[in-house]
Design brief:
The protein has 323 residues and is an alpha/beta fold. The chain has 14 helices and 10 strands. The protein has a single domain, classed as 3-Layer(aba) Sandwich (Rossmann fold).
Length: 323
């Protein structure tokens, strides 16, 4: 399972680049190409969710851009229930199921919410077009308000990290702490090599070539890209059947980073980082981000690769910054 998740992270990250390069063909709102396609995806999605402990609640929260599917795992006791909740924002094509290995570290310890993104495959719906990347921050803010959360520890991976950073910039009062796991583009532009690999994915070349491109993006083997599991099937079904809308994030300025009032931590991969790796770490430290970690022997799929180590470390971080 761990090997497959590494390959899936490479796939999800590459899709952000494909959407950017193919912007002219992007739909106004994210949508399923057919009912049959959605049903096929939902079967795969449900199979992955069945591997995760049942949530204590499931809600579809209304926003001006559509509805957000939110899963809640409530704290096991009243004392922990009073602790600041955690909100998880996923990478592209991953949805709430991407956090399966991480959730097992946190369920019961404090209330955790995992969301499917608007404009991407999952159980959320997209009704009103995005006009800028800041609209991604707007739906997150409206979802948190709809859940009745005063403030939360917000965690984002990859594209979800970019959304989380932009949300914190626009709505700082809603964020008790900000954790960015391999956040794309907000600290550094993506490496040029990633664009070269992504271009190959857009060309009419044999699938074997595309598998090599995905392996190059994610720093994994071709065998890992080709491995088939319920998670890989879910991602494949979403990629085939959902026309996604993923406006590209931008690199935030030093002044914008400096304006964030909440504690911020950044966790980066040592190998094949799509967030900028050591260069992003140097910038994060130079602009005063308090906690910056480069995890050895990791790639862009960092949350899955170091789930057991990351779990208690983030718990300690949240404990230290509870309101």
């Amino acid at each position: 399972m761990r090997r497959t998740l590494i390959a899936l992270a490479a796939l999800g990250a590459s899709l952000l680049l494909i959407d950017r390069l193919a912007a002219a063909r992007r739909p106004k709102v994210g949508q399923w190409r057919s009912r049959a396609g959605f049903e096929s995806y939902r079967g795969a999605y449900d199979e992955v969710m069945a591997t995760i402990p049942d949530p204590s609640g499931t809600r579809d929260v209304a926003t001006e851009f559509g509805t957000v599917r939110v899963y809640e795992w409530a704290a096991a006791d009243a004392g922990r229930g009073a602790a600041t909740p955690v909100v998880l924002l996923p990478g592209i094509r991953s949805g709430a199921p991407m956090w399966g290995e991480n959730l097992t570290q946190w369920i019961g310890r404090r209330t955790v919410y995992a969301m499917d993104a608007i404009g991407d495959s999952g159980m959320s719906t997209h009704a009103v077009p995005f006009t800028s990347f800041e609209d991604q921050a707007a739906w997150v803010e409206q979802a948190l308000a709809g859940l009745g959360l005063g403030a939360a520890h917000v965690v984002g991976h990859s594209f979800g990290g970019a959304i989380a950073a932009t949300h914190a910039l626009r709505h700082p009062a809603r964020v008790a702490s900000l954790t960015l796991l391999e956040p794309v583009m907000v600290l550094r532009p993506m490496p040029a090599s990633i664009y070269l690999w992504a271009t190959l994915l857009l060309l009419p070349v044999p699938q074997s070539w595309k598998d090599w491109a995905l392996a190059g993006i994610g720093g994994v083997s071709v065998e890992e890209v080709r491995e088939r599991t319920p998670m890989s099937m879910m991602v494949d079904e979403g990629s085939k059947h959902y026309a996604a809308v993923t406006l590209s994030p931008r690199t935030l300025t030093d002044a914008e980073w400096d304006s964030l009032p909440m504690p911020v931590r950044v966790d980066l991969a040592a190998d094949k980082s799509m967030a900028g790796g050591s260069e992003a770490a140097r910038r994060a430290r130079a602009i005063g981000i308090g906690s910056v970690t480069i995890w050895p022997q990791t790639t862009h799929s960092l949350p899955m690769q170091v789930a057991k180590q990351l779990g208690p470390e983030l718990e300690r971080y949240w404990d230290a910054h509870d309101g």
